[in-house]
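Help needed: design a sequence for this.
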Protein backbone atom coordinates (compact mmCIF):
# COMPACT_ATOMS: atom_id res chain seq x y z
CA UNK A 1 0.00 0.00 0.00
CA UNK A 2 1.13 3.57 -0.58
CA UNK A 3 2.53 5.91 2.04
CA UNK A 4 0.33 7.57 4.67
CA UNK A 5 0.38 10.99 2.93
CA UNK A 6 -0.59 9.49 -0.42
CA UNK A 7 -3.51 7.64 1.16
CA UNK A 8 -4.76 10.81 2.83
CA UNK A 9 -4.94 12.43 -0.63
CA UNK A 10 -7.31 9.75 -2.00
CA UNK A 11 -10.45 10.97 -3.78
CA UNK A 12 -13.57 9.13 -4.86
CA UNK A 13 -12.36 9.01 -8.47
CA UNK A 14 -9.52 6.72 -7.33
CA UNK A 15 -12.09 3.95 -6.80
CA UNK A 16 -14.28 2.29 -9.44
CA UNK A 17 -16.91 0.92 -7.01
CA UNK A 18 -18.79 2.91 -4.35
CA UNK A 19 -21.45 1.67 -1.93
CA UNK A 20 -23.47 3.94 0.38
CA UNK A 21 -24.00 3.10 4.02
CA UNK A 22 -26.30 5.00 6.37
CA UNK A 23 -24.57 5.13 9.75
CA UNK A 24 -26.55 3.95 12.75
CA UNK A 25 -26.82 5.35 16.25
CA UNK A 26 -25.15 2.17 17.55
CA UNK A 27 -22.10 2.77 15.29
CA UNK A 28 -21.04 5.68 17.52
CA UNK A 29 -18.88 5.10 20.56
CA UNK A 30 -18.66 7.12 23.76
CA UNK A 31 -16.47 9.71 21.97
CA UNK A 32 -19.35 10.49 19.56
CA UNK A 33 -17.74 9.05 16.45
CA UNK A 34 -17.91 5.75 14.63
CA UNK A 35 -16.12 3.04 16.60
CA UNK A 36 -13.02 1.59 14.96
CA UNK A 37 -14.49 -1.94 14.93
CA UNK A 38 -17.29 -0.72 12.63
CA UNK A 39 -14.77 0.19 9.92
CA UNK A 40 -13.74 -3.47 9.50
CA UNK A 41 -17.39 -4.50 9.45
CA UNK A 42 -18.05 -1.98 6.66
CA UNK A 43 -14.94 -2.91 4.68
CA UNK A 44 -15.91 -6.57 4.78
CA UNK A 45 -19.45 -5.64 3.71
CA UNK A 46 -18.42 -3.58 0.65
CA UNK A 47 -16.03 -6.33 -0.49
CA UNK A 48 -18.66 -9.06 -0.17
CA UNK A 49 -21.34 -6.91 -1.79
CA UNK A 50 -19.04 -6.42 -4.79
CA UNK A 51 -18.19 -10.15 -4.92
CA UNK A 52 -21.87 -11.09 -4.82
CA UNK A 53 -22.96 -8.48 -7.40
CA UNK A 54 -20.06 -8.73 -9.86
CA UNK A 55 -18.16 -12.00 -9.26
CA UNK A 56 -21.02 -14.52 -8.93
CA UNK A 57 -20.16 -15.26 -5.29
CA UNK A 58 -22.85 -17.03 -3.28
CA UNK A 59 -21.48 -17.02 0.28
CA UNK A 60 -23.10 -20.23 1.50
CA UNK A 61 -22.74 -22.35 -1.66
CA UNK A 62 -19.91 -21.12 -3.94
CA UNK A 63 -17.14 -23.70 -4.38
CA UNK A 64 -14.58 -21.02 -3.41
CA UNK A 65 -14.77 -18.17 -0.93
CA UNK A 66 -12.37 -15.52 0.34
CA UNK A 67 -10.73 -15.78 3.76
CA UNK A 68 -9.25 -12.55 5.16
CA UNK A 69 -5.58 -13.17 5.98
CA UNK A 70 -4.53 -9.56 6.61
CA UNK A 71 -6.21 -6.24 7.32
CA UNK A 72 -5.26 -2.80 8.54
CA UNK A 73 -6.62 0.71 8.50
CA UNK A 74 -5.37 4.30 8.49
CA UNK A 75 -7.70 6.82 10.15
CA UNK A 76 -7.61 10.48 9.09
CA UNK A 77 -10.86 12.02 10.36
CA UNK A 78 -13.96 10.84 12.17
CA UNK A 79 -17.47 10.22 10.94
CA UNK A 80 -20.51 9.82 13.14
CA UNK A 81 -24.24 9.18 13.12
CA UNK A 82 -26.36 10.34 11.28
CA UNK A 83 -23.87 10.78 8.41
CA UNK A 84 -24.06 8.73 5.24
CA UNK A 85 -20.79 6.96 4.46
CA UNK A 86 -19.55 6.15 0.98
CA UNK A 87 -17.40 3.03 0.89
CA UNK A 88 -15.05 3.09 -2.07
CA UNK A 89 -13.39 -0.11 -3.32
CA UNK A 90 -10.58 -1.04 -5.66
CA UNK A 91 -8.22 -3.96 -6.18
CA UNK A 92 -4.52 -3.17 -5.96
CA UNK A 93 -3.15 -6.65 -6.68
CA UNK A 94 -4.37 -10.05 -7.82
CA UNK A 95 -2.30 -13.18 -7.23
CA UNK A 96 -2.95 -16.82 -8.12
CA UNK A 97 -5.48 -17.21 -5.29
CA UNK A 98 -5.18 -13.94 -3.40
CA UNK A 99 -6.46 -10.41 -3.84
CA UNK A 100 -5.42 -7.16 -2.16
CA UNK A 101 -8.24 -4.65 -1.78
CA UNK A 102 -8.03 -0.99 -0.86
CA UNK A 103 -11.12 0.51 0.74
CA UNK A 104 -11.69 4.19 1.47
CA UNK A 105 -14.43 5.64 3.61
CA UNK A 106 -15.81 9.05 2.67
CA UNK A 107 -18.66 11.02 4.19
CA UNK A 108 -21.33 11.92 1.66
CA UNK A 109 -21.06 15.60 0.79
CA UNK A 110 -17.59 15.97 2.36
CA UNK A 111 -14.46 16.16 0.20
CA UNK A 112 -11.68 14.55 2.26
CA UNK A 113 -11.22 10.84 2.88
CA UNK A 114 -11.95 9.68 6.44
CA UNK A 115 -9.99 6.42 6.37
CA UNK A 116 -8.23 4.04 4.01
CA UNK A 117 -7.88 0.35 4.75
CA UNK A 118 -6.45 -2.77 3.18
CA UNK A 119 -7.84 -6.31 3.18
CA UNK A 120 -6.09 -9.32 1.70
CA UNK A 121 -8.20 -12.36 0.94
CA UNK A 122 -7.10 -15.81 -0.15
CA UNK A 123 -9.73 -17.72 -2.07
CA UNK A 124 -10.03 -21.27 -0.79
CA UNK A 125 -12.02 -24.33 -1.78
CA UNK A 126 -15.06 -24.80 0.44
CA UNK A 127 -14.36 -28.51 1.04
CA UNK A 128 -10.66 -28.24 1.97
CA UNK A 129 -10.37 -24.59 3.13
CA UNK A 130 -7.11 -24.55 1.16
CA UNK A 131 -6.26 -22.60 -2.02
CA UNK A 132 -7.03 -24.50 -5.21
CA UNK A 133 -3.93 -25.61 -7.13
CA UNK A 134 -5.37 -23.84 -10.20
CA UNK A 135 -5.94 -20.61 -8.27
CA UNK A 136 -9.16 -18.68 -7.96
CA UNK A 137 -12.11 -19.36 -10.22
CA UNK A 138 -12.15 -17.46 -13.53
CA UNK A 139 -15.45 -15.71 -12.76
CA UNK A 140 -13.92 -14.31 -9.54
CA UNK A 141 -10.73 -13.21 -11.28
CA UNK A 142 -12.61 -11.53 -14.13
CA UNK A 143 -14.87 -9.62 -11.73
CA UNK A 144 -11.92 -8.49 -9.63
CA UNK A 145 -9.94 -7.40 -12.69
CA UNK A 146 -12.75 -4.92 -13.51
CA UNK A 147 -11.84 -2.85 -10.46
CA UNK A 148 -8.10 -3.48 -10.49
CA UNK A 149 -5.82 -0.45 -10.60
CA UNK A 150 -3.32 -0.68 -13.40
CA UNK A 151 0.27 0.20 -12.52
CA UNK A 152 1.52 3.49 -13.94
CA UNK A 153 4.22 3.08 -16.55
CA UNK A 154 6.53 6.04 -16.85
CA UNK A 155 7.93 6.90 -20.26
CA UNK A 156 11.38 8.26 -19.57
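Sure. Designed sequence:
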Amino acid sequence: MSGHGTLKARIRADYPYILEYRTRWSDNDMYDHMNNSIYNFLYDSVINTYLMEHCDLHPSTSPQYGMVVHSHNNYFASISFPACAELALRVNKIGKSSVTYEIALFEKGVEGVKSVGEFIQVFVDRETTRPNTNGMANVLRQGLERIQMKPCVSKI
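The chain has one domain: 4-145.
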